[in-house]
Structures are given as structure tokens and as C-alpha cells.
Amino acid sequence: MDAISKLVISYNVDKRTGEATHAFAHDLRARVLGAPQISTDGWSSYVEAIESAFGADCSHGVVMKQYAIAGSAEQAALRYSPSKVIGIERIVVSGNPDVPSISTTYIERQNLTLRMSIKRMARLTNAFSKKLRNLKAAISLHMAFYNFCRVHETLRVTPAMQSGLTDHVWSVDELLRVALGQDKPSPRPPHAPLAPPRKRSAPISDDGPIPIGRATSVPFLRVVKGGAS
Fold first, then answer.
1. pTM value surpassing 0.85
2. If we measure between CA atoms, which residue out of 70, 68, 50 comes closest to residue 60?
3. What's the domain range around 113?
4. Pure H helices in the chain
5. Which helix (H) or strand (E) is 170 found in, with range?
6. Helix or strand or coil: residue 61?
7. Exposed site from 55, 113, 119, 200, fewest CB < 10 Å?
8. What is the per-residue pLDDT for 123?
9. Over the chain (229 residues), what is each successive 10-residue block's mean pLDDT?
10. Which of the 8 DSSP states describes residue 52?
11. End of a domain among 172, 187, 202?
12. Pick from 67, 63, 61: which is nearest to 86 by CA?
């Protein structure tokens, strides 16, 4: 994930193995130009995989988190969720990275977005994918929707627009048509004119206009005469 445009550049649906890590790193190398700065967690396979894919054309930093151990080591190993983080260490692996910028915060937030957006990623439910093909399709749809259709709350545009890949927010219909090869992205102006906001008119009752909103001394809801006794 690009820290500036928030674009998800590459992803890989697989088990957390060395082979899958190498495939992921080489796919990322094929999609990125130049020598980027890469931040990863402490998964040991990242070091060899990134060196194999990028060589000297990157700066690699690792974020090592230290967790508090509650109880014995055996009990900590059986915990469903990790313990409280008590320390973070930033380690330079290769190149000359900006040490304060070594962070996995953005991708950790993206992991939360993924789990909140796809029900099959929720834990302790029966909504998980029963087939690997279905899981890959769901992840692919989410990533495409995130990049091209979902307006980022911080950027106020989609990550694809921030990266210069498109000049407008894609609809789901356009996304599916392009994905299926039925259509090409339709050209649209980067800033379509917005319709002027409609003014809210106060409803009329026998006693006059009813105030709208909360900033009024008159109660917003009132009991009026009429109806069944």
C-alpha cells in the first residue's frame, strides 16, 4: 500500500509461507518503478523476499513490536489476540530509509477496512469462504472497489484518482464492465458540477410553521389534537 495515495498496489491471497512471500514481493516489484522505501512487520520471510525482488533498488525497514506477556509463556501462546504493545523498534534492513517513516500503520488500518467491508473475513462466524476461489474473488472485488470506487475519507478522492490512474470516481457498474472486458473507462470531467443544495422549508401546522432543527426553544416534537381517543 502506498502511504501517500493510499493505493493498494499489490496483494496476494495465500498462506503465510516463504514461497507466497516471494511471489508477493516479485509481483510488487513488477508494479513499482524506481527505488521505493518499504516497511514491513517482523515476518522473517520478508527480508529475503524483498532482497530477491528488489536487490539494492529499495530501502527496507522493519517494525518490531514488543508485547507484554500476561501469565506464563504457554498461556500467552494460546491467546486469541496479542497482548498489549509495550514498545516498538524500527530496524533498518537495507538501503537508507527514513527511520521515522518506517511504519505499518497504514496497512494495519487497511486490514481493518478489509475485515469491516467483507463479512467472510469476520472471525468466529460461519460466513467464511468455503472455496479458495470465492475468497480470491471477494478480495479482488474489494481491492478494486477500494482503489477506484471508494472515496478515501482523508484524501476526499479515490486512491486511483490520487495516483493519476483515473479522473473520476468509478461506479460499481463501470468497475464490473471494465473487469469483464465489456467496456473501457468512460471519460468524465474531473470535477462535475454539483447541484445546489435544496432549502428545507418548515412544515405548516394550525399554529404556524414548525421550527426545524435543534437550535430552538420550542420542542421539535409536539403532541397535536386529533386522532383516536
1. no
2. 50
3. 1-117
4. 18-31, 45-54, 73-77, 105-117, 132-148, 159-162, 172-179
5. none
6. strand
7. 200
8. 79
9. 95 94 96 94 93 95 84 62 82 94 93 91 87 94 95 93 94 91 63 50 51 45 53
10. H
11. 187
12. 67
